[in-house]
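User: What would this chain look like folded?
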Amino acid sequence: MHFPWWYVPDLTSPMLIAFIAIIHVLIAHYAVGGGLFLAVETGFAYKTQNSTYLDYLKRHTRFFVLLTAVLGALTGVGIWWTIGLASPLATEVLIRTFVFGWATEWVFFVVEITAAFVFYYYWGRLPPKTHVVIGWIYGGAAWISLVLITGITAFMLHPGGWLEHRSFWVAFFNPQFIPQTIARTGGALLLTSLYVYLHASLTLKDPKLRDLIGTRSARPALLGSILITVGGIGWYLRLPESAQAVLASAAVLNVLIAIIFALTLIVFILLYLGPYRNPGWLSPGFALALFLFGLAAFSTGEFIREAVRKPYISYNVVLGNQIFPKAVPGLRQGGYLEGGVWPKAFVSMRFPEVIVDGKIDRSRLLSLPPEDRLLVGETIFHYHCNDCHATTRGYSPAGPVLTGRSRESILELVTHLDESHFFMPPWAGTEEEAQLLTDYLVHIAPPRPGGMIHREIVSEQDP
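Assistant: Here's the prediction, encoded as structure tokens.
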């Protein structure tokens, strides 16, 4: 509650995080798997003295460096920018908990970037063995970066015993660490093959070289599909109880899981029948279909991973509306507006008449004119609800969800959020603040549509 709110109309700030993060993840996994691919294949090309393959690998490295080092770096900075604005409390917790982990990851990131540029710009000027070693330094550093970041992000889904021990190592080696590391390593291998297939099919005219690339990349791609499946099963089995409940109760998430397994199976079959058994199938259309199926499956998995954390941003650590769970009783007693630096500053500046002895007088809030009550209610909504809900349109808008509800039912919903929907954070304000929030929600809720049955009981005699 000591951070200002960042309001993103319609989309909501967390969805902006998701948009940038998914792009970054799709590139970052290619950065890991692509490094391993280039190290292995450059060594193979040198060993077999295949100059044609070496020429292609150099061209692919240029594409690889541009995509991962430029766009990957930009989206990586974009993630830090958006999470710092949209989820400042959760970001603060992650930075303080994993200072050593972040520092270590940055060291490997510097090694990774340096090795990538040396690998490309010194192509042909280094002895083959040295060139391959540089490739392996890049691939190893990239994979270690993946492992370090996975330990930190997996903590958000299940911190394990960190709440009791507050140890970096307990936090890092959380219950989700191994399953997610396996799945993400598999994702890096699979996505890299799909990137390679698409790039090769669009840039190569030599069918013999295209077939060689298809054959050699098929096995790591198939292995990647298997690792994703194994890691995904482990991910589900190590979910905290609340996350499993969210997954079971949300029909759309179950549909998305079915879609993921279907797409993964399709990709596996196409990889086996295509590049593995019939490399000649590697046409631009076939490669594009594989690429799109793989991206759809991976992106859907990322969405589900984020969705099941509710009502938390970090399980049992930070609630979805940027509040520590232990702070809820105090906010209910002392006031939600009073407990936040920025909400209180706004109320004090805009409505000085409600301030008594330096504190917000809750009874005076209720005596404000209707339009001012709506403004205070909107402020409460932005801080308490906007992390998950837009207003009248956009992502999960609160207004349409409340269509046709009476004021009494909306007030009951507000004061019992976590009882009405267990995946929502509890109400963290006073009764007076609940009244003000209800005013605003009633204001944005569409009227009851015509043709719907009202409370009145229709008698059997009515036609």
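The chain has two domains: 13-319, 325-444. If you want, I can go into more detail on any region.
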